[in-house]
Amino acid sequence: MNARFGVKDFFVFALLLAVLVSVWLGVKARDRQWTLLQSIDDRLAENNRTLTQLNRTLSSGVRPVAAATNGTAAATASHPRIDAAHAFPDFAEGDWFIDVFAQTVGKLTPHVSTDVYQNVVASYVVETLADRDPDTLEWAPSLAESWTISDDGLTIRFELNPAARFSDGTPVTAADVVYSYELLMNPKIDAPRIRVYYSKVASVVADGDHAVVFTLSEPYFLGFNICAGLEILPKHYYEQFSESEFNETPGLLMGSGPYRLDGDPASWTPGTGKIELVRNDNFWGPAPALDRVVFREISDGTARLAAFRNQEIDRFGVEAAQYLTLKDDEQLLDQSNLYEYESLTGGYRYIGWNQVRDGEPSIFADVRVRRALTMLADRQEMAERLEAGLATVASGPFHPLGDQADPSIEPWPYDPDAANALLKEAGWEDRDGNGVIEDADGREMKFKLVYPASSNTYQQMVFYLKDAYARAGIVMDPDPLEWTIMLQRIDSRDFDAITLGWGGTIESDPMQIFHSDSIEGGGDNYVSYRSDEADRLITEARVTVDEQARMALWQKLHRVLHDDQPYTFLFNRKAVVFVDQRFSNVQVTKTGLNRAEEWFVPGDLQRYRD
Amino acid sequence: MTDAAAPEPVTPDAAGASAVPRRSRSFSGRVLYTLLGRWGARVAAVWIGLVALLAVAAPLLANSHPIAFFDGDVWTSPMLRHLTPTDVLLLVVSLAALVLWPLHMLSAKARRRIWLGLIVVTALAVYVFPGVHPPEAVVFSQYREALAENPDARAVHTLIPFSPTDRLRDLPDRRLAEPDATHRLGTTQFGEDMASRMIHACRIALAIGFIATGIAVVIGVVVGGLMGYFSGVVDLIGMRLVEIFAAIPVIFILIMIVAFYGRNLYLIMVVIGLFGWVGYAEFTRAEFLKLRRLDFVQAAIALGVPLRSVLFRHMLPNGLTPVVVTASFGIAGAILTESTLSFLGLGLVEEPSWGQLLNQARDMGGGFYWWLAWPPGLAIFLTVFAYNLIGEALRDAIDPRTQKQKASPA
């Protein structure tokens, strides 16, 4: 083989070089075309946007005329919180907000969906008659511009805002409100859980096109809540579906909110990994800034964090276990803002002591035992060590930010000596020298504590309690259960003690948790707590419409629950959320972060466009 | 791929040569000799021996309760006081085995009888009659606290002065500590000493392997033996049963069972056994199909020996060899299954197992703790590898084709 560089080789190389150069030139030319196209596209989108803005100003210019004929000028004042965002000097329309859910949402159809996150999606799409202002917690107009409540609290009359439009442009009328209520009460509709709340509503009657009257069958403190909170659905749209179609179609979500489902709701299918909402161009209030609100579904916590790091999602909720490592994470702090807040809706954690086992009073039937068990747990230290300081010790079921809680009540202190004395007083001491305390009948203080498996946070806490109780001669065995199995055990009251959390609302109704009527028949008083005093206070407060008198009753109830300790109230937890830093006007309110329709992204920071 | 497995019938390697000529040894003796002649199997045996030793002696090696403790007035032994019935049984049985093994004046049968007798007596003593009763509410930190408060107190600690579930409540800052002089392998997310947990986890690894495989072998041999001996319709039905069981994914069954019946190690063992017998049944069936036509079986039947005797006394010992080989792989499989389950967070709650420790090496914040990852990872790998090596070597030692001489069984 002779490896000489001949003339032929030279030509071959030259040809190769020529081919390479021409390919490169081709790529370059293509690139230039592409950028040109992109800029044309941008200009087009810009034009489009100005057009919609023009349209909107036009229509809002028309609106006061329509309102004037009705004799009210409140129409332009709708959605003041979105309006407030428009006042920022760097306010700009555009960009998306990509939120994340830890579970898939199987059904979006209102009333019949049982998915946890459905109401997050629905809150962007469907509106109610009135809304709580998240800062003041006062009721603020939404679809209804005003309302009057009769003195006995039984009749509530809502005046609808005549400007209100559904996302297909049809006006919201009293007929739609009546229809929404009747749809819910239709026994063929698969909504028994929500229907229960409305059992106290006797009738909903339209009075003309823009007024509707709710009548309650008996006074109920949450009466206004449930009437004002009814999701208003467009009659003309939902009417075309039969009851069974309504029950079974997963995506029938349409309303008057600032966003609407992307595409035809009837053909929406679950399981695609994301839910996309687009701005409702027929929205009757000020336009929200973001073009789209997208919900991705990522069930694995580590994957969620990775997605947030890669800027694939814009919000990331931090668990206590992650907090210490993530709060100083340079990369995360560079790309996002950290929000820590207490929220009225944050709920509380507790340990429930089951007072009845197999029809017999259990070891927890004695209030002294329950108090001792509370005082043996150093909740302050637990909050600091296990919850990374993101929790405050709770004294009762009502959130300290709200009016239901009695601010003078201090949580029981950590006091093992007092606890041991209480146990001794109740007849519990180590009689046979095996290290475990017994009562006079020889019953040993041994129990299993049920908690949700797969939660590291709960496990840390349960281990902590086990070691704390061991010091007092109490044997506690951790009993982690899968969620469905746990619900089954709760329903059959088949557990010694359980640790879980309750979600919160602005004004909660303790009936289902602490009233003795909720012991039987699958109510939520699964610890079988029975107190005449608590029953009386709950019953009385529920029919007291006057807010101040009612709050006084709730505060008395708080005291009773504190003394009786049916639960060991553990913590009110703070929420910690990272939000991508390109968003402006992100605020912490009493009920958590404000809604994404109030956020905007200044023009130069925008990342996504349609 | 070992050199002995290479099919070179003429020049035997040293181990093979020394193994074969001793005609005086029994079959099992010869197999054992060949087996231990291979360096791979020898290393594997040493590793498993070490794991077994750690498993038996765990409470003597890693314990928060001191061997001896002086509180200023009297000396006590909290360690002895806190031994559980299982600890005592394991210690007595292993000690007895160690003592009896070299006693050659007794016949093997006599030694076995004494040993089994000891097991029964000890088990009765510790389980049925409450001979050993450790306190149930345990405060691990009491000794450390007493030593700190009382200058007169003295304690003689075990090699690792921490129990596997001692969460160091008196030293809350030691959570998730990297390895140092006190915690040789660091501590876990709950503050437990990693070295102590590793040692105590040996028990579960050994128990799950042997008990689950034991159950599977018993079922497999009985079903397979019946199928092979009767053949025909019984075989047909049996094989369909085998096919059904072979198609059941054990890990999903386990996940379901754990969800419904809670975390129970014995249940996990039983389930792995109940769904893992298929391989053993197939091997036994094949062997029995072959054996039932052989003269000595025909002779036994002709002599009117009862079926039970024909099956289990005459045929089984000759058809067991492939099962023994499969079993050693089965043990490895069972350990892996338990580790998988624990890694998924469905194993035991408090007691340590290697899979669970591996699970703790990563946390939800995306953190990764290297000192929690390598010891259990290595232990699982080495143990599974060791059983596979032994299985591999066993197969070679038993298989007459890799032997230089034809080994005639029985």
What layout of secondary structure does this protein have?
The complex is a heterodimer of chains A (610) and B (410).
Chain A: H1 7-70, H2 80-86, E1 96-101, H3 118-125, E2 130-132, E3 139-141, E4 144-149, E5 155-160, H4 174-185, H5 192-197, E6 201-206, E7 211-216, H6 223-228, H7 235-238, H8 243-248, E8 259-261, E9 274-279, E10 292-297, H9 301-309, E11 315-318, H10 320-326, H11 330-335, E12 336-341, E13 348-353, E14 356-357, E15 360-361, H12 367-376, H13 379-385, E16 391-393, H14 416-425, E17 446-452, H15 456-470, E18 475-481, H16 483-491, E19 497-502, H17 511-514, H18 532-542, H19 547-564, E20 567-573, E21 575-580, E22 588-589, E23 592-593
Helix pairs in contact in A: 12-14, 18-19
Chain B: H1 14-19, H2 27-36, H3 39-61, E1 68-70, E2 75-76, H4 78-81, H5 85-100, H6 108-128, H7 142-149, E3 154-156, H8 194-230, H9 232-246, H10 250-261, H11 265-274, H12 278-291, H13 295-302, H14 307-319, H15 321-343, H16 354-360, H17 370-398
Antiparallel strand pairs in B: 1-2, 1-3
Q: Could you please describe the fold and organization of this structure?
A:
The complex is a heterodimer of chains A (610) and B (410). With 610 residues, chain A is α+β, with helices and mostly antiparallel strands. Chain A is built from 19 helices and 23 strands. Chain A has a domain at 348-573: Dipeptide-binding Protein, domain 3 (Roll). In chain A, α12 runs antiparallel to α14 (416-425) and α18 runs antiparallel to α19 (547-564). In chain B, a hairpin with a 4-residue loop joins β1 (68-70) and β2 (75-76). In chain B, α8 (194-230) packs antiparallel against α9, α8 crosses α15 (321-343) and α16 packs antiparallel against α17.
CATH H-level homologous superfamily name of the domain at 348-573 in chain A: Dipeptide-binding Protein, Domain 3
Strand content of chain A: 15-25%
Radius of gyration of chain A: 30 Å
Q: Report low-confidence residues of chain B grouped into runs of 5 or more.
A: 1-22, 405-410
Helix content bin of chain B: 55-70%
Overall geometry of chain A comes to: globular
Radius of gyration of chain B: 25 Å
What is the straight-line distance between the termini of chain B?
Answer: 29 Å
Number of separate strands of chain A? 23
User: What letter string, H or E per element, gives the SSE order of chain B?
Assistant: HHHEEHHHHEHHHHHHHHHH
Decide which structural class fits the backbone of chain A.
Answer: alpha+beta
Question: How many alpha or pi helices of chain A?
Answer: 19
Under CATH, the topology of the domain at 348-573 in chain A is which? Dipeptide-binding Protein, domain 3
CATH class of the domain at 348-573 in chain A: Alpha Beta
Arithmetic mean of pLDDT of chain B? 84
- Averaging pLDDT over every residue of chain A, what do you get? 87
CATH architecture classification name of the domain at 348-573 in chain A = Roll
